[in-house]
Write a structure and sequence with these properties.
This protein has eight helices and twelve strands. It is an alpha/beta fold.
């Protein structure tokens, strides 16, 4: 049987934005950059299309009818690790940190340059496409963790129980990076470079992602991972 020589489809971007003019502009710029687009005008439609189309990334407005962006993001994170970039008129630091804590991979305040959105989309897609290398098994086993690099499945043992955990792409990359060298202390700058190389290069962004990662582990009964090394950064094991 001949191999399938059909070209791979370009990544699909779901634009969840209730302002038609903004959605039109974003769609035009993304299409011009070689990406496919689908659109949802409210939060309910965004969730339906996400389940139907399985997009590679979601551009998600916060202030939408039916379900707002925070509600949609929470449901997307319950479903899995689809990368999400938040689009919002709210530009306060607390709103940015809220988006990152809930599980956004990036956050852009309106008004924005559509070309910048395209660049951020491409950056997040590149990060999501990178499969970390390993010794050939495709699995990292470290302490109570079993991390499958191909499927992005993470299981952790707590007592006699095994828990399957869901992480955002950035949280997963942080976990893998730290688990590869569990006793090494990683500075925030190192983690920014390794796990958010084209993102918003602020140390507090790393802190926000690590905090959310840690809370998920605590909910599964794993305490103190990652460990904070005061004045330096983080390491996997204390």
């Amino acid at each position: 049987m001949k191999p399938d020589m059909r070209p791979r489809q370009p990544p699909l971007i779901l634009i969840a934005e209730d302002e038609a003019e903004i959605a039109d502009i974003l769609g035009a710029y993304l299409t011009r950059s070689g990406l496919r687009c689908s659109r949802a005008a409210d939060g309910e439609a965004a969730l339906v299309l996400h389940r139907q189309l399985r997009p590679d990334l979601v551009l998600l407005d916060v202030q939408m009818p039916k379900f707002d962006g925070w509600q949609v993001l929470s449901e997307l994170r319950r479903r899995g690790t689809t990368p999400v970039i938040m689009l919002t008129a709210l530009d306060q630091d607390v709103d940015r940190l809220t988006g990152l804590r809930v599980g956004a991979d990036d956050y852009v305040a309106k008004p924005f340059n559509p070309a910048e959105i395209v660049a951020r989309v491409q950056a997040v897609l590149r990060r999501s496409a990178k499969a970390p290398s390993d010794d050939g098994t495709g699995v990292i086993r470290q302490g109570p963790f079993e991390i499958d690099l191909r499927s992005h499945d993470v299981t952790v043992r707590s007592g006699e129980q095994m828990h399957a955990l869901n992480f955002t792409l950035t949280e997963f990359r942080l976990l893998v990076h730290l688990a590869r060298a569990p006793r090494q202390v990683h500075s925030r700058a190192d983690l920014l470079h390794a796990c958010l190389p084209e993102g918003d290069a602020q140390e507090r962004t790393v802190d926000s992602h690590v905090s959310k990662l840690r809370r998920k582990l605590e909910d599964a009964g794993v305490i103190g991972i990652p460990a904070t090394i005061r004045g330096v950064g983080y390491r996997f094991l204390d």
